[in-house]
Amino acid sequence: MSYNRGYVFTDKRRKNIIKLNSKPKSAAWKKKISIAHKGLKPPKETRIKMSVSRRKRTDLSGDKSHFWKGGISKFNYSKNLLDRIKFKKTIQRKVFERDNYICQVCGQRGGKLQVDHIQSWANYIELRFDINNCRTLCMSCHYKITFGKPMSKNIKTWGQNFKYLKEG
Ligand SMILES: [Zn+2]
After folding, report:
1. pTM score > 0.90 for this model?
2. Ligand 1 centre and the CA of 91: distance in Å?
3. How far does the centroid of ligand 1 lie from the alpha carbon of residue 110, in Å?
4. Among 22, 37, 90, 103, which residue's CB has the most CB atoms within a 10 Å radius?
5. Other CB atoms within 10 Å distance of the CB of residue 76
6. 97 in Cβ contact with 163 (< 8 Å)
7. Which among 18, 52, 53 has a CA at the least distance from the CA of 9?
8. Is 110 exposed, middle or buried (0-12, 13-18, 19+ CB in 10 A)?
9. E strand segments, 90-167
10. What is the whole-number distance in angstroms between the Cα of residue 112 and the centre of ligand 1?
11. Quick check: 11 pLDDT over 70?
């Protein structure tokens, strides 16, 4: 397995892996593997779960990361991803409709619109689903507010909660 080359397992992780490998294989697991072997795309739900577990794995090595702060501000990837999905299903459209699909900064209607969280998504978890903390912005105004500089012309798309609406 070439992708593991150079990767040093800690004793704890090695034990965990042995434990995992000795578990009886569930029907769901077998199905996932058979899908993988056929080269087919697993269903969306499975893909999300797989991506969550991949991210968790990277998260474990966080103590070597520059952003690691002794675990105090450890980012919860699975909650983040599930909240993103929930947000798209519940609040996103309400924000666009309330703002009449108009960017609240430049007044552009339609085009590439996104929902901006006034108090940030990452730092104000309790305000993620508060519609009063949300506003409609076009992609370039959203970029400018988020990064404090104009969006480069080379950037075609970025960010989350994306909605394309044709003028009219
Ligand atoms: Zn705008």
Report:
1. no
2. 20
3. 10
4. 103
5. 12
6. no
7. 18
8. middle
9. 111-117, 134-138, 162-165
10. 9
11. no
